[in-house]
Every structure is written in C-alpha cells, then in structure tokens.
Amino acid sequence: MLLYTKTGDKGKTSVIGGRVEKDDIRVEAYGTVDEVNCFVGQAMTQLDGSLFGDILDDLEKIQHELFDCGGDLANVTENKESKLDAAAVEYLEGRIDQFIEEAPTLEKFILPGGSPASATIHIARTVTRRAERLVVKLAKADPEISPAALPYLNRLSDYFFALSRVVNFRLNVKDVEYARSANVFKGKKRNN
C-alpha cells in the first residue's frame, strides 16, 4: 500500500461520496475532530492505568467515537447513515455527573493545567470547542450532517473539563484558581 497518492497535490481531497477543496468547511470540521483525537491519545500516554483505568477505558471509547464523528462529517452522500448516536451523548452526561461528584466543589474559574495530563485534557477541551464551532458552520451549509455531532462535541468539551479536574484530584494536584475570579459557582458542583 502506498501512503501517498498525489491525488491531493492540486488542493482537493476525497470525502465519502466525492471530492472537495482541502479548505472546505467540511474538511476543517472533521480535521479538527481528528486533532481532538490526537490530544486524547496524548493524554492517554500521560495516565497511569492503575489510577486511571476507568478513564483510559473512557478515552479509548471516545477515540472510536471521534473517528465515527469524523467519518459522519466527511460523508457527502445523499443517504447518510450516522455511526455516532445519542447513546454516546448520554454516556458522556453520566460520566460528567460522576466526575462532578468526585472532584472538589468548584467555586471559582480555574486555569488550564495542574498536572501534565490535565493540561493536555484542557487542550483537548478547547480544540473540541473549535470543532464544535466549525460543525455549526458546516450545519448551515449541510443541514443533513449527523444529528448527534453537535450535541456530542458540546458534551465532550464539558466531559474534558470535568475530567481535567478529576485527574488533578486523583493525583493530589490542586486546580489553579483564576486569581481575579469571584465565587461564580456559589459552591455548586458543576462544570463550566
């Protein structure tokens, strides 16, 4: 198998059911989802299985779902069948709720960081938000995109926020509070 095909040398790339310009919003959207997946993989290398086995299982599941999401977004055929579904969104919601209960009560805004793994997860969170914004643009051009893509990416960024706090908590590393933050969360357990 050849890794290079030279078919993209003039600025076009293949998608499921056709070819588009490499700067097409569709390519931007699924390419950014792929970028999230890479940061998830990096975070996994920074987590010890004995302390984070449940989270490593989650992250591997998420990597497959991100691949599904990217494939769904790359599909330009008329009869699109999505691989990503509402069950993936519901799973993330359940895990977010568990993480909120596990981590210390959040009162102020926090800065990304703490441990290296938490910092990487914060990067995944912000890139997920960018992917979400791009999928919003794509949905305006193609209202037939996967119906689960936007809710999934929205919930996934929340998951990463809650996860970053749990990772720091399990490692006994304090979140770094934003110095000029008021008590914006009023002692409630919630994410941003």
Automatic annotation (TrEMBL):
One example of a Gene Ontology biological process annotation: cobalamin biosynthetic process
Going by the record, the broad EC class of this enzyme is transferase
Q: In which pathway does it act?
A: Cofactor biosynthesis; adenosylcobalamin biosynthesis; adenosylcobalamin from cob(II)yrinate a,c-diamide: step 2/7
Record-listed E.C. numbers: 2.5.1.17
- Tell me the InterPro entries matching this sequence: CblAdoTrfase-like, CblAdoTrfase-like_sf, PduO-typ
What are the entry keywords?
ATP-binding, Cobalamin biosynthesis, Nucleotide-binding, Transferase
Could you tell me what reaction this enzyme catalyses? 2 cob(II)alamin + reduced [electron-transfer flavoprotein] + 2 ATP = 2 adenosylcob(III)alamin + 2 triphosphate + oxidized [electron-transfer flavoprotein] + 3 H(+); 2 cob(II)yrinate a,c diamide + reduced [electron-transfer flavoprotein] + 2 ATP = 2 adenosylcob(III)yrinate a,c-diamide + 2 triphosphate + oxidized [electron-transfer flavoprotein] + 3 H(+)
Drop me one GO molecular function for this one.
ATP binding
Where does the record place the Cobalamin adenosyltransferase-like domain?
A: 3-167
Q: Is Endoplasmic reticulum among the key words of this record?
A: no
Q: Which NCBIfam families match?
A: PduO_Nterm (TIGR00636)
Entry similarity comment: Belongs to the Cob(I)alamin adenosyltransferase family.
Q: How does it assemble?
A: Homotrimer.
Q: Write the protein's name.
A: Corrinoid adenosyltransferase
Species this chain originates from: Bacillus mesophilum
